[in-house]
Amino acid sequence: MTAIPQLRLPAEWEPQSAVLIAWPHGGTDWADRLAAVESTYVALAAAVTRFQSLIIVVADATLKAHAREKLAAAGADLSRIRFVELPYDDTWLRDSGPITLAGGDRFQLTDFRFTGWGGKFGAAQDDALVAGLVDAGVFGHAAHKRIDWALEGGGIESDGAGTILTTWRCLVQRHPDQSREEMSTILRDGLHAERVLWLDYGYLEGDDTDAHIDTLARFAPGDRIVYQACDDTSDPHHDELRRMAAELAALRTADGRPYHLYPLPWAQPIIDEGRRLAASYANYLIVNGAVLVPAYGDAADDEAARIIGTAHPGREVVQVPCRALIWQNGSLHCITMQLPAGMAH
């Protein structure tokens, strides 16, 4: 009798079937700068469809027609795009989309509770998004498992081999009455993982996710970790990110070896209407054959892209303009969610 492969959370660099996004519109928080942020979405969609399929959630048929026209004009491969009409509060699908476990030809859409980052924003429609996509038939035969515990996809990193990396600052905000041990057990059980690694340090001013790991440190193949560093001793982030770097250096792989660390350069402060925006290069997206890297119009953009490419060898590096995204406190990875290879859509 053939053993049934166990479910696990794949690493992002494993083969994918599609990337999932939601198109911005006037009813979202993007309303005041819609044209600027749409240009980022168009660039992202054109880049993704060079390599694989893209599923775009749209609010209605009018928005679908509008997005399709924009994408056609930009040369996106429309044959690789599927539109799905559903209501949503906003477009941060890394946090409201499904966390998909895979095992052989089995898939489980792990649907944690989405609370608008700890109740900061209304999130009722976003919390229902995974169920809506399931009802629309987007995920084929994948099972759907609802877990009544607040967790966002941007708050966890998986190496695909049983290790989860996360931040205490975020999860203690979501679950102030639970201990680290209790939360580790829930994460291991819910994500079918073997161990959870925690970071106590690391944050970015202008980030309202309470220090999501995908703005700070990312697993990469070959026991690598790519992380956002700050070499400017006058910057208020310097000490915190230095402490985070020390934590990362102290982490060990499952077989006891140190990780290979790849520090990313620090963008100059970006101030908008008197507030600093969180310009993290760690918030990149991996797709089949490529890695899409945020660019902010900063002198450090190219060096960040080079380092990320080095940590992900054999992939084309594509820069995507993301300055418009950080106005709403997120970046490239935050607006996307990948789906593992083999999922029907």
UniProtKB/TrEMBL annotation:
<dbReference type="GO" id="GO:0047632">
    <property type="term" value="F:agmatine deiminase activity"/>
</dbReference>
<protein>
    <submittedName>
        <fullName>Peptidylarginine deiminase-like protein</fullName>
    </submittedName>
</protein>
<keyword id="KW-0378">Hydrolase</keyword>
<dbReference type="GO" id="GO:0004668">
    <property type="term" value="F:protein-arginine deiminase activity"/>
</dbReference>
<dbReference type="Pfam" id="PF04371">
    <property type="entry name" value="PAD_porph"/>
</dbReference>
<dbReference type="GO" id="GO:0009446">
    <property type="term" value="P:putrescine biosynthetic process"/>
</dbReference>
<dbReference type="InterPro" id="IPR007466">
    <property type="entry name" value="Peptidyl-Arg-deiminase_porph"/>
</dbReference>
